[in-house]
C-alpha cells in the first residue's frame, strides 16, 4: 500500500519523495496506484490498463475515430489498432463506417462494453472518493482541475 501523501510505498521517508521527486515520477506513482486498484476487474475481463483508458474515452464520447481515441486515451496509434482489435474480438467495442466519410471507421462501446466500463468506473469512482476523503473535497476538486489542465500547460 502506498502513502497517500506521496504515492510511494511504505518504509520510505514520506517527506523526502514529496520534496525531491520530479513531476513525472509523482504522476507515474499516482497512475500506478489507480491501476493497481482497477487490476482485479481488468483481470476478470482479460483487459489491460490501456484497454480501460480506451473504454473510458468511449464511455464519455461514443463513436470516435481511431486517431481521436489515440489522442484522448494517450495510446500510440500503432498500438491502438491492436488494442481495439482485441476489444472488438471480445465484443466490448464495435466499429462502424462513418456516414460523413465512408473511408473512416468510428468506434463505440457495445452493450457488453458499456457494462464492463461501468464496472471499472465504479472502482475508479471509489478511488476518487477515497482521495476526496483523504484530501478534503476542495483539495480533491482542485487536484482534478489541475490535472485536467496540466497537459495543456506543459504542451503550450
TrEMBL record:
GO BP of this protein: response to stress
Protein name in UniProt: MarR family transcriptional regulator
Gene3D superfamilies: Winged helix-like DNA-binding domain superfamily/Winged helix DNA-binding domain
Signal peptide limits: none
GO MF annotation: an example: DNA-binding transcription factor activity
Domain of life of the source: Bacteria
PROSITE patterns, A to Z: HTH_MARR_2 (PS50995)
Amino acid at each position: 500500500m502506498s502513502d497517500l501523501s506521496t504515492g510511494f510505498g511504505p518504509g520510505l521517508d514520506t517527506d523526502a519523495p514529496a520534496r525531491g521527486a520530479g513531476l513525472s515520477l509523482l504522476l507515474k506513482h499516482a497512475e500506478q496506484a489507480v491501476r493497481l486498484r482497477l487490476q482485479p476487474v481488468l483481470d476478470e475481463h482479460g483487459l489491460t490498463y490501456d484497454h480501460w483508458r480506451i473504454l473510458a474515452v468511449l464511455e464519455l464520447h461514443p463513436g470516435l475515430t481511431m486517431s481521436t481515441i489515440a489522442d484522448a486515451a494517450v495510446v500510440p496509434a500503432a498500438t491502438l489498432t491492436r488494442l481495439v482489435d482485441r476489444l472488438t474480438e471480445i465484443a466490448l467495442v464495435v466499429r462502424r463506417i462513418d456516414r460523413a466519410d465512408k473511408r473512416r471507421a468510428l468506434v463505440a462501446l457495445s452493450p457488453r462494453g458499456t457494462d464492463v466500463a461501468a464496472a471499472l468506473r465504479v472502482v475508479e469512482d471509489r478511488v476518487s472518493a477515497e482521495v476526496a476523503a483523504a484530501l478534503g473535497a476542495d483539495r480533491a476538486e482542485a487536484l482534478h482541475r489541475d490535472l485536467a489542465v496540466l497537459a495543456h500547460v506543459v504542451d503550450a
